[in-house]
Amino acid sequence: MENLNTLFNAGSVAIVGASNNVGKKGYEILQNLIQGDYKGNIYPINPKEAEIQGLTAYRSLTSIGTRVDLIVIVIPSKFVSAVLEEAGQLSIHHAVIITGGFREIGCDDLDAAMLAVAEKYKINIVGPNCQGVNYTPNKMCVSWPLIRGKGPMAIIAQSGTVAAQFGLIADKDSIGVSGLVSLGNKSGLTEIEFLEFFGTDPNTKAIALNLEGIKEGAKFLKLVKDILQQKPVIILKPGRTVKGMIAAQSHTKSIAGSDKIFDAACRQIGLIRADSIDELYDYTKILGFLSKPAGNRVQIITSSGGSGILATDIFEENDVDMVEINPELKRILSEKLPSHCVLSNPLDLTGDTDAARYETCVEEAINFNNSDMFLLIFGDPIPGAHEVVSRLRTKTDKPIIVCYLGGGKIEDEETQKMHLVGIPTFPTPTRAAKALAILCK
Amino acid sequence: MKMEKVRSILYKAKEEKRWLLEPEAMEILKTYEISVPEHRFINDIKEAVKSAESIGYPVVLKIVSPAILHKSDADCVKLNLTNGEEVRNAYQEILTNAEKFDPKAEIRGIIIYPMVKAGLETIIGITEDAQFGPAAMFGLGGVFVEVLKDVAFRILPLTLDDALAMIKEIKGYQLLCGIRGEKTKDIISLAETIVKVSKLCTDFPEIKEIDLNPTYVYEQCVTVVDARIRVG
Would you call A260 an interface residue with chain B, using a CB distance cutoff of 8 Å? Predict the structure, then answer.
């Protein structure tokens, strides 16, 4: 197995099937590589063109005449083996095969031929039938859409769309990603090799997985268990129902075992399971940013009574302790806050609050060892929230999680500023509380 | 030596492409120090009565045949026999019913047990998962497994802590802790039994399925009352 470091940190990329025609994958991938500001050499391969998107086009890999680290293949499946053969002779060891039309549609012979060449020349294959890879530290997006925001989370996904959406949400949130991998058919590289890479990648603090089936169960469990000692891993595995499982099997010919057993396996090694893209993103985000609290007692401080109740229900259902407010703390706060504030848990600062009241509450609360973490719900357009939370973070190690909603334009600005300094912020009390419950597990 | 005995039993069943016979399964469980009732495997009516007397009445008779896996369905289990005459009648009846159930069934003999006092019914099993290989299963017997699907799984190999976590995970766990004035059941022995069964499967990967149903749990011990083991 050639080291995947060369794949992700490739210094040169050839796109076999690069195109000048908008709408073709060979156009889009080349465009993303260029617009993503990739610093390495780019070689578009297409015998029918002299120039593609402003770059010199080459007839073949051989005609490039210099070293190539990675090739991206977007030509029809029946030509793939021949291209790999050529790549092998040129000592190219990494290929991303975007093209579909292999065993997922019953063309097992094309699959076998491709794998035989890959085996012969020791070529690592991503896909086929995949949406490529994107590694932001190398500004290398050989995938779509173009996602440029660099951040601490990596996603390894069977579904290209799940990977893309995860990256888009992270980008919009100003959090960004380190890497995106679409596994496709997993004929060559599987989740195992990518987990090994991201598990030791210094640019990656948390790993999100989306798998429809697992190829080597025992190896997977051992590997994830080891990685979990270093960084969080969260998995989204659809196919919980019988019909869902059948759909998973036909999608990428995954072997799906019993979902109950999969669930047990996750529990056994402490692998957290998400049930939706939102959960996968939220859990990866919170675990990527925050350390585990010392205990499970939470204090909610909110401007919205209703939002506080929504979070309370989630905490109660997930064994997070909605601890009673300390009587002495209550006395101190009653002197510092307006009399209409509800000094309880949730602590309701009510709709007329400014950001300063939150600061007062947390500053006083950290003098009492009564709670292990805080959920601050900003349920109105409250400016300056991010400054308050940033300051509070320097005063306590206890995790502070933010939920910001009902704040319109100010909310958008504040949320973005929080994310830029690594404060995980959630758009609903339910999502914030669920994520926090996961942090406590 | 003990391992050799287990290996040869498994080999034979595999060669003959059949599930283990009940006396074979019981023998293997005993080798792994899993508590099973005293039993005799015989194929002669006079032996039956002699064995019943040495075990002590009341006794249970069951058919031993590779063709009859679900013995109760074939009416080949006779419970609570209290004397020699009942044993002789039961013996004849089982053979007649087996013949009726499947005229071609090869009859190896009859297994005799003492009538075991019922404890809390549980099921311990091993199943082979397509992704993760062998996994242990635990649940409470009867409606809990059949209707409520209240079972817990763990991938092999597993520790005593894993087994205890499995037991605690089921919704009916309260029943093992003793409710309505009943005393707590022997949860430690139950967990130990799960670990021993798992050990058996990791030692012998040719075992593909185990079904210890029922496994009775009492206040101070556990007994496996029926065992089915499949090799592959």
Answer: yes
A112 close contact with B: CB closer than 8 A = no
Helix (H, G, I), strand (E, B) or coil at A334: helix
Put simply, the answer to whether A218 touches B162 (Cβ < 8 Å) is no
Domain containing B216 equals: 120-231
The β-bridge relationship of strands B207-217 and B151-155 is unpaired
Are the C-beta atoms of A259 and A298 separated by less than 8 Å? Answer: no
- Tell me, what CATH number does B54's domain have? 3.30.1490.20
CB within 8 Å: B132 and A257: yes
Contact A221 B133 (CB under 8 A): no
Q: Does A258 touch chain B (CB under 8 A)?
A: yes
Encode chain B (232 residues) as per-residue pLDDT tens digits.
688 999 999 999 999 999 999 999 999 999 999 999 999 999 999 999 999 999 999 999 999 999 998 898 899 999 999 999 999 999 999 999 999 999 999 999 999 999 999 999 999 999 998 889 999 999 998 777 777 778 999 999 999 999 999 999 999 999 999 888 888 999 999 999 999 999 999 999 999 999 999 999 999 999 999 999 999 9
CA distance B150 to chain A (A): 11
In a domain, B18, yes or no: no
Assess whether B163 and B103 both reside in one domain: no
Cβ–Cβ < 8 Å for A35, A7: no
Looking at the fold, whether B80 and B160 belong to one and the same domain comes out as no
Q: Which of B95, B109, B92 is nearest to B39 (CA)?
A: B109
B175 plus B204 within the same structural domain: yes
Last residue of one domain, picked from the residues B85, B115, B145: B115
Looking at the structure, tell me whether residues B110 and B183 fall in a common domain: no
Decide if A261 and B132 are in contact by the 8 Å CB cutoff.
Answer: yes
User: Is the CB of residue A1 less than 8 Å away from at least one CB of chain B?
Assistant: no
CA atoms within 13 A on the CB side of B107: 22
Q: How far is B110 from chain A (nearest CA, A)?
A: 37
